Amino acid sequence: MLIGELSRRTGVKARLLRYYEAQGLLDAGRAPNGYRDYDEDAVVTVRRVRALLDAGLSTDVIRSVLPCVRGEAQEVPEFDWCADLRGILQGEMTAMDERIDSLRRTRGTLAGYVAQSPVGTPG
Description:
The protein is mainly alpha-helical. The chain folds into 2 domains: 1-82, Multidrug-efflux Transporter Regulator, Chain: A, Domain 2 (Orthogonal Bundle), CATH 1.10.1660.10; 83-123. 56% of the residues lie in helices and 7% in strands. The protein is built from 5 helices and 4 strands, in the order H-H-E-E-H-H-E-E-H. The strands form 2 sheets. The chain has a two-stranded antiparallel ribbon with strand order 1-2. A two-stranded antiparallel ribbon has the order 3-4. The longest helix is centred in the last third of the chain and has 31 residues, at 85-115.
């Protein structure tokens, strides 16, 4: 199928599909005219990529875990627990927890600044 049809079937813009291909997340053959030619599995692959992106994973991490994803992955992907998969996902959760903690500290600092503003001052 051509990129326009894959875009229509998945709801993902053609520009993003080309990006997924450049990131090694999606494979496309080439038709004799040079156009990208996707097989039927591409629809499921794009759904899996979108589900993993929605979970906050980067394309680098998705490239590592995508071979372990099974099913249609409309919302929650199913996994074949490949070697290192649990460690990769736990590592991502740890990194997210660290970012959340950092944001909480930063927010607390800003809240302290706002609390110092004089009464009646816009802010």
